[in-house]
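fwd from M.: "can u put these together and see what the complex looks like"

so here's what she sent:
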Amino acid sequence: MTAQASLDQEQTETMTVREAIRLALREELRRDEDVYVMGEDVGLFGGVLEVTGDLFEEFGEERVRDTPIAEAGFMGAATGAAATGTRPVVELMFSDFMGVSMEQIMNQMAKMRYMFGGKTEMPVTVRTTEGGGMGAASQHSGTVHAWIAHFPGLKAVAPGTPASAKGLTKAAIRSNDPVFVFENKMIYERSGEVPTDPDFTVPIGEAAIEREGEDVTVVATQRLVGESLETAESLAGDVDVEVIDPRSLYPLDTDTIVESVQKTGRLVVADESPLSYGIHAEVATRTMENAFFSLDAPIQRVGTPDTHMPFSPPLEQEVLPNGEDVREAVERIA
Amino acid sequence: MADYTIDTADGRLEALRRMLTIREFDTTAGEYFADGEIPGFVHLYIGEEAVGVGACAALEPDDYIASTHRGHGHCIAKGLDPKLMMAELFGKADGYCNGKGGSMHIADVDAGMLGANGIVGAGPPMATGAALTIDYQDRDQVALGFLGDGAVAQGQVHEAINLASTWDLPAIFLVENNQYGEATPVDKQHNADNLSDTAQAYDIPGITVDGMDVTAVAEAVEEARKRARAGDGPTLIEAETYRYRGHYEGDEQPYRDEAEIERWKQRDAIESFKKRLVDRGELTEDEFEELRADVEATIADAVDYAQEADLPAPEEAYDDMFGESVPEIEQFAARPRTDGGNRGGDSR
């Protein structure tokens, strides 16, 4: 079933990715007293990218908590809090700040359950923003989801649509495992149909076929989902492109991707992260392990050349992957 | 009510028993490590017993502690079972962590023990987090984070104390100043006279106590606990103590001499506390020897238990990663190593 088909069966409302995430937070804060939001300027200020918005007004400072600018401290506190019976939702303002808190993420949050022989849960959600496109330069434009997806003990999701933004955020909060939600800052204004059912979630580890096609499979994430869909429409008649949003980066829905490639015989992987050693390589490898003899052409990668995101617009546009890059990749193998 | 309190004669005997148990456990662990029966590293708590026992005597059983890499003493002080601890040191399946943690990671969250920790300075943020849960759920508990003198230099320690202070969380931070951060003396790592002085920056009480005196530690923690429960926020306590052994077992300790160790041993926490109890008529020499024999038997039993316990089955290496399973782990683990196949992959 495609994502669109499943949406048609439910009550929906048009909203942006930002509104969808805020709705997810609101619904989960209402549903479970143990859930609270913490991070830098998430309270009265409403979040530097306005995601938490007016939640402070409804839930107050106990449940929408402003933290000091101390990423290691509050990421560690969230870890300790999750291990002892509450369900913190941490906003890490920009994913570039992950490094500041990496000790608590990699050695505590990720390892506690395993090192304790499974005798604790770790129901922590970390929401963070990624991506270039607003001239924010290298320290506020990074795309680091491959780090987290690579690190054992952590789950990583990355929504490409408003519906998946809501559903993944809710699934992350309800999960007893540490889940990182990577929000591309350039799609906060993207709008679409979102289920209004408060029990709607997107299961972690389940991809969505956003557009069906017969000729080329494009596995695209975050902003590149929308751009790939536009590219697919513009190519319609010449090349019939199937667009899959994996939604979850770890765990990854290998089966959906493999089945698609077995049908199309061609694969483009489009993800904004640096091209070496990351998401592209993982999707390509799993495809080759499982569908090597179905491939009719070399797998193509669309991503950020192994650079940081520069400041000046012509430089940023040079390295930022877009729908045109997807088109070129499709045309190379179609 | 606490398991025992240092305000009663029975409680003082229990404190003495726990200090003796720690010393016997760690002496024994050192021997089995030297014999090669215990893998990895072990960091012994010998000499510092009064700190862990004094602190835990002032806590309620369901209070939380977060520990350090030198955590055996904290576990015993908190009431964990030496058998399951020893089994964990031996890497056995029914150790506290099913053989996945070892000496540096013994934990029992249900018992309020949030884990020994292999990262210097990582425990205090955990204690702040537990205190956040306590405060958020309005529970009648506190969380105490142990840290060593070396950890006072770590940034995340200051972040954790600042956060707990800013939010008035029911946390206690207890610095065990054993005079050495690994192999470097404390005065070469800090330019403060007392490590509790940093409390001023957070506008919380900072006190330095004699860490060789179990009652002094207990009184300080009791006061800090009252303050935490009253909603007045954390306290930073420094306990001055001494590490009799090296940083790790096998450490040749070129950085200090035997005379210094002997000077501290004159003030040995167990000997001095025992003497006080004898002087007060709460204990006879015979009763002390009985207590010692009893403790030795307990630890000998723990070793027997650990030696006889089963090793984990190799496939248990893939368990406990997540609460909700991910297919990757099963896929990548599908071929037993003995078959000689590559990890991952599934050519079809």
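replying to her w this: The mean pLDDT of chain B is 94.
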